[in-house]
Design a protein that fits this description.
It is a single chain. The protein is mainly α. The chain contains eight helices and no strands. It has helices at 3-23, 39-61, 66-78, 89-97, 99-102, 106-123, 129-142, 153-168. Helix 1 runs parallel beside helix 3, helix 3 runs parallel beside helix 6 (106-123) and helix 6 (106-123) runs parallel beside helix 8 (153-168).
């Protein structure tokens, strides 16, 4: 297995973990022995997921596709880490510094801009307002066609979530 495939697999696993963590509260899961998942079981599962993502994060710092990195940092913040935690604070700052570049490409830039705006809003740090404004303008530039979308439903959703996050910051 090459490093590229390994990283892609790891990034896919990280995305799956993020989805599982975000969706877990929405649908009850049954434990075979007790019938319901206990709060302690959920905490343990989240803890294991955090450990995995923290191990994965260094390999994503140099990866070509920074969208994976944004997703991992968002998942870690959603799991209770503070954006100023030394384990992820530099990631937040580095991604904010690279925001304009990350959003420059029309197709994937819409995804990255939407995600990064959501992450920056999670920090509640007003120092990111200028970056949020830049990203919001970039999303407006990428808006395609007279119908008001961004090319497809997926990109439109990410763009709208990002724009709302920019407004909330």
């Amino acid at each position: 297995m090459t490093g590229r495939h390994s990283l892609g697999w790891s990034a896919g696993l990280a995305t799956a973990c993020l989805a599982a963590l975000l969706l877990a509260p929405l649908r009850p899961v049954r434990a075979e022995s007790a019938g319901r998942v206990t709060p302690d079981e959920v905490k343990r599962a989240i803890g294991k997921g955090k450990e995995l993502l923290l191990k994965l994060l260094p390999s994503l710092r140099g990866h070509r596709e920074q969208g994976y990195r944004i997703l991992v940092v968002m998942a870690l913040v959603n799991c209770g880490m503070k954006p100023g935690d030394p384990l992820i604070a530099e990631d937040v700052q580095d991604l904010a510094r690279r925001a304009e570049y990350l959003a420059s490409e029309q197709y994937y830039g819409v995804y990255r801009a939407g995600l990064l705006l959501s992450l920056l809003a999670m920090t509640r740090d007003e120092r990111h307002k200028a970056v949020a404004t830049t990203l919001a303008r970039k999303l407006q530039q990428h808006q395609a066609g007279a119908n008001g979308g961004w090319g497809d439903n997926s990109r439109t959703q990410f763009a709208l979530l990002g724009l709302k996050a920019a407004e909330d910051l």
